[in-house]
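U., I forgot to send this yesterday:
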Amino acid sequence: MARDEVQVQLPTLDSSNSVATLVNTEASTVTQANGTKLKGFAGCKDNSLQITITNSGSSASSVTFKAGDFANNVMGDLTQAIDGGKTATFIIDNPSRFQTNDGSILIDYATGFTGTIYAVGKHAGLKKV
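Result:
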Protein backbone atom coordinates (compact mmCIF):
# COMPACT_ATOMS: atom_id res chain seq x y z
CA MET A 1 0.00 0.00 0.00
CA ALA A 2 1.36 3.45 -0.94
CA ARG A 3 0.58 5.51 2.15
CA ASP A 4 0.03 9.26 2.12
CA GLU A 5 2.92 10.92 3.96
CA VAL A 6 2.25 13.59 6.58
CA GLN A 7 5.11 15.47 8.25
CA VAL A 8 4.91 16.41 11.94
CA GLN A 9 4.82 20.20 12.18
CA LEU A 10 7.22 21.77 14.70
CA PRO A 11 6.35 25.20 16.15
CA THR A 12 8.82 28.08 16.44
CA LEU A 13 9.92 29.05 19.95
CA ASP A 14 9.94 32.70 20.99
CA SER A 15 13.14 34.33 22.29
CA SER A 16 12.32 33.37 25.91
CA ASN A 17 11.69 29.72 24.98
CA SER A 18 8.37 29.95 26.83
CA VAL A 19 5.90 30.09 23.92
CA ALA A 20 5.88 27.93 20.82
CA THR A 21 3.82 29.14 17.88
CA LEU A 22 2.70 27.23 14.82
CA VAL A 23 1.46 29.64 12.17
CA ASN A 24 -0.71 28.37 9.32
CA THR A 25 -1.27 24.84 10.58
CA GLU A 26 -1.64 22.62 7.54
CA ALA A 27 -4.06 19.68 7.59
CA SER A 28 -3.78 16.93 4.98
CA THR A 29 -6.83 15.30 3.44
CA VAL A 30 -7.18 11.65 4.42
CA THR A 31 -7.34 9.10 1.61
CA GLN A 32 -8.95 6.18 3.45
CA ALA A 33 -7.66 3.53 1.04
CA ASN A 34 -4.04 4.70 1.41
CA GLY A 35 -3.76 5.29 5.13
CA THR A 36 -1.22 7.71 6.58
CA LYS A 37 2.52 7.48 7.18
CA LEU A 38 3.32 10.06 9.88
CA LYS A 39 6.94 11.19 9.56
CA GLY A 40 9.19 13.25 11.82
CA PHE A 41 7.77 12.48 15.25
CA ALA A 42 11.20 11.44 16.55
CA GLY A 43 12.15 15.13 16.51
CA CYS A 44 9.58 15.84 19.25
CA LYS A 45 10.18 16.01 22.98
CA ASP A 46 8.67 13.16 24.97
CA ASN A 47 4.90 13.35 25.38
CA SER A 48 4.52 16.34 23.07
CA LEU A 49 3.24 14.60 19.92
CA GLN A 50 -0.37 15.56 19.20
CA ILE A 51 -2.19 14.04 16.24
CA THR A 52 -5.40 15.84 15.27
CA ILE A 53 -7.88 14.01 13.05
CA THR A 54 -11.21 15.38 11.84
CA ASN A 55 -14.01 13.02 10.82
CA SER A 56 -15.94 15.06 8.26
CA GLY A 57 -18.48 12.28 7.72
CA SER A 58 -21.92 12.38 9.30
CA SER A 59 -21.53 9.14 11.27
CA ALA A 60 -18.96 7.81 13.72
CA SER A 61 -15.90 6.11 12.28
CA SER A 62 -12.54 4.94 13.57
CA VAL A 63 -8.81 5.29 13.10
CA THR A 64 -6.21 2.64 13.90
CA PHE A 65 -2.68 3.39 15.06
CA LYS A 66 -0.72 0.38 13.83
CA ALA A 67 1.66 -1.50 16.13
CA GLY A 68 5.27 -0.72 15.30
CA ASP A 69 8.39 -2.80 14.84
CA PHE A 70 9.90 -2.62 18.34
CA ALA A 71 9.37 -4.33 21.72
CA ASN A 72 6.28 -2.30 22.69
CA ASN A 73 4.44 -3.60 19.63
CA VAL A 74 3.20 -6.52 21.76
CA MET A 75 0.51 -4.10 22.94
CA GLY A 76 -0.92 -4.33 19.40
CA ASP A 77 -2.83 -1.87 17.25
CA LEU A 78 -4.91 0.84 18.92
CA THR A 79 -8.30 1.68 17.38
CA GLN A 80 -10.08 4.88 18.41
CA ALA A 81 -13.56 6.09 17.45
CA ILE A 82 -14.29 9.63 16.26
CA ASP A 83 -17.90 10.82 16.18
CA GLY A 84 -19.27 12.13 12.89
CA GLY A 85 -18.50 15.79 12.24
CA LYS A 86 -16.06 15.91 15.18
CA THR A 87 -12.33 16.46 15.66
CA ALA A 88 -10.20 14.38 18.02
CA THR A 89 -6.68 15.13 19.22
CA PHE A 90 -4.59 12.15 20.27
CA ILE A 91 -1.65 12.84 22.58
CA ILE A 92 0.71 9.95 22.03
CA ASP A 93 2.33 9.17 25.38
CA ASN A 94 4.45 6.26 24.22
CA PRO A 95 5.25 6.64 20.50
CA SER A 96 7.68 3.69 20.57
CA ARG A 97 4.59 1.43 20.67
CA PHE A 98 3.81 2.56 17.12
CA GLN A 99 7.27 3.38 15.71
CA THR A 100 8.27 1.50 12.57
CA ASN A 101 11.82 0.68 11.48
CA ASP A 102 11.93 3.81 9.29
CA GLY A 103 10.86 6.03 12.23
CA SER A 104 7.29 6.67 11.13
CA ILE A 105 3.86 5.92 12.61
CA LEU A 106 1.25 4.20 10.41
CA ILE A 107 -2.44 5.07 10.69
CA ASP A 108 -5.33 3.26 9.01
CA TYR A 109 -8.93 4.45 8.64
CA ALA A 110 -12.22 2.56 8.69
CA THR A 111 -13.94 1.99 5.35
CA GLY A 112 -15.66 5.17 4.20
CA PHE A 113 -13.71 7.48 6.51
CA THR A 114 -13.34 11.05 5.24
CA GLY A 115 -11.53 13.88 6.93
CA THR A 116 -8.18 15.53 7.60
CA ILE A 117 -5.09 14.94 9.72
CA TYR A 118 -2.20 16.98 11.07
CA ALA A 119 0.38 16.45 13.81
CA VAL A 120 2.29 18.88 16.02
CA GLY A 121 5.13 18.38 18.50
CA LYS A 122 7.65 20.50 20.39
CA HIS A 123 11.27 20.55 19.24
CA ALA A 124 13.59 18.08 20.94
CA GLY A 125 17.12 19.13 21.76
CA LEU A 126 18.70 22.50 21.20
CA LYS A 127 16.89 25.41 19.63
CA LYS A 128 17.97 26.30 16.09
CA VAL A 129 20.24 29.36 16.00
